[in-house]
């Protein structure tokens, strides 16, 4: 758990986001990488049994290329999640500082008393709860959902029935 103090003495509690780094390639994962073409061929043969004779034989697997591809995907996924968490922190802090003094005090008290995980998503929940943003977001979602349903109903009325 980490703390960061602002100009007015408010201590922001937060949990740092874990960094994953290098993926671990175990012997089991290595065997799975090497056996994937054969598993794919068997699955295709089961799906298309009449074409088994014309299916190409699986070629050799470039294990290093697959490991690098998995590492790139892991890094990209981690970066997307870190960007999401940073965006949520920024939006939450913006909403906190835009709130009136009584709402900010309520948020500070609620966050100090919070016993759950101290991540950006939970902070967002606490801020939304005390600023009314949650209710506004819920109303906007309900409105958009109602409009979407109305559009689908209108489309269904214009399409002729197949039966």
Major sheet description: 2 strands, antiparallel
Mean pLDDT metric? 87
Strand order of the largest sheet: 1-2
Task: State the separation between the terminal residues, measured CA to CA.
Answer: 62 Å
Low-confidence stretches: none
Helix content: 55-70%
Helix-strand topology string: EEHHHHH
Number of strands: 2
Gyration radius, rounded: 26 Å
Report the total helices. Answer: 5
The shape is flat
User: Approximately what portion of the residues adopt beta-strand conformation?
Assistant: under 5%
Question: How would you classify the helix and strand content by structural class?
Answer: mainly alpha
Secondary structure topology:
Layout: E1 2-5, E2 11-14, H1 27-47, H2 63-98, H3 101-113, H4 120-131, H5 133-158
Helix pairs in contact: 2-4, 3-4
């Amino acid at each position: 758990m980490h703390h960061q103090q602002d100009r007015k003495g408010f201590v922001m509690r937060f949990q740092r986001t874990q960094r994953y780094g290098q993926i671990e390639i175990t012997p089991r994962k290595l065997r799975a990488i090497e056996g994937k073409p054969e598993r794919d061929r068997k699955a295709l043969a089961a799906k298309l049994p009449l074409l088994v004779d014309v299916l190409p034989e699986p070629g050799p697997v470039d294990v290093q290329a697959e490991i690098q591809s998995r590492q790139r995907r892991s890094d990209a996924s981690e970066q997307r999640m870190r960007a999401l968490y940073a965006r949520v922190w920024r939006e939450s802090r913006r909403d906190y500082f835009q709130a009136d003094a009584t709402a900010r005090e309520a948020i500070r008290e609620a966050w100090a008393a919070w016993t759950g995980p101290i991540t950006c998503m939970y902070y967002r929940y606490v801020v939304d709860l005390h600023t009314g943003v949650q209710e506004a977001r819920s109303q906007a979602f309900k409105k958009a959902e109602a409009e979407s349903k109305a559009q689908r109903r209108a489309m269904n009325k214009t399409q002729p029935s197949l039966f």
